[in-house]
Amino acid sequence: MHMRKTSQHGQWSSRFAFVLAATGSAVGLGNIWKFPYITGENGGGAFVVVYLLCILAIGIPIMMAEVMLGRRGKQSPINTMRDLAKEAGSSPMWSWLGWLGVIAGFLILSYYSVIAGWAMAYVVRVASGVFEGATADGVSNIFVAFIADPEKLLAWHSLFMIVTMLVVARGVKGLERTVKFLMPALLVILVLLVGYAMDQGAFQQGVSFLFTPDFSKINSDGVLTAMGHAFFTLSLGMGAIMVYGSYLPSNVSIGSTTVIIALADTAVALLAGLVIFPIVFANGLEPGSGPGLIFQTLPIAFGHMAYGAFFGTLFFMLLVFAAWSSSISLIEPAVAWLVENKNMSRMRACIWSGLVTWMLGIGTVLSFNVGADITLFGKTFFDTLDYLTANVMLPLGGLGIALFAGWVMKKEASSAELNLTSKWQYLGWRFLIRFVSPAAVIIVFLNVIELI
Fold this sequence. Notes:
The chain has one domain: Hydantoin permease (Orthogonal Bundle). Helix content is about 75%, strand content about 0%. The chain contains 19 helices and no strands. The protein has helices at about 15-25, 30-40, 45-75, 75-85, 95-125, 135-145, 150-170, 170-180, 180-200, 205-210, 220-235, 240-245, 255-280, 295-305, 310-340, 345-365, 380-410, 410-420, 425-450. Helix 7 (about 150-170) runs antiparallel to helix 16 (about 345-365). The mean pLDDT is about 90.
């Protein structure tokens, strides 16, 4: 018989608090910065279709499994997987799954913090009127000059890491208070900007690019990118959702809550696309222009619209806040493990984990300027981390979660923890988690390494 534990780190005050926190973890730079540019690089509509299928068939079932494992284990992902493996009568080696998530979170936050620093810097730039009346070339030149300066990038990266660790140091209450006012505000601003894009941008062209699929424009690497982004944007396989699940009260429905989070996350990504692509096409820009896309499109709009400095400042502030709500979830698994296993105070655990992440982020800072010519397999340090985490580590972590929840964990345990409203809902989830989700991950991996 499973004895229900309580987390030593505390728990969310309500289902709504968990939804906001998990949505905050999911909604961030991945939706507003990364989704538009990888959609642009992979042909638009066809990529969106594949991405949505990945969310439905892979993302939601695995997210349910990860929340379930977290709530049942009530510890950091590493200790949760060790104890749940023991409960299932399996090998303690399953703790590798927790380690994979913690390491992936570290690596992602190291470069995530640098990009969030860009957003912080743009709050100042937009507010000071730098982009007022600027042309597309002028905006592009400002961005290129900015990322070419390693000292500025390092300063903003450092500032973002400090504010992240200040929230994490306050524990569950700090996490909860921070996300409660950030996410609704971000959604309001996105809707306002969609209205602006409808009025001022090439809206029909943007909608067509985003929602009209041409499957000749997507290849196996694009499919892998779509699957990897489904994991990235839902914060799967990086320990964040598992550790947030460990703070979830036992009376909260995992199934319906997970669906709400996935729908909110996907809606924000699509709204971001409806803001950015009309502006891209209206100004003759290239939709596949890479990681700098959002920093080279929206400033053009803000530089020419009424009250542009106000709306632009607000947008980039909220982009920072969205990044902030995600970053605190990326480092939380490592902090929780240090508190549990190394007898550290939460503050000390935050300082050490934050310092290591900050130092690793210096590699990303340099990869945009003085270290741009240093490559591994043709990729810069930033591109290597981005590819390794989003396309390898997160899907591998998701695969491990699916295999453990579907094949190792006892049926009675997963059924009791999920507590779905009908037998058929549980059987549907179990079929997806045992067969569809693992098969999809494996097929895409095999396709990419050209074994099929």
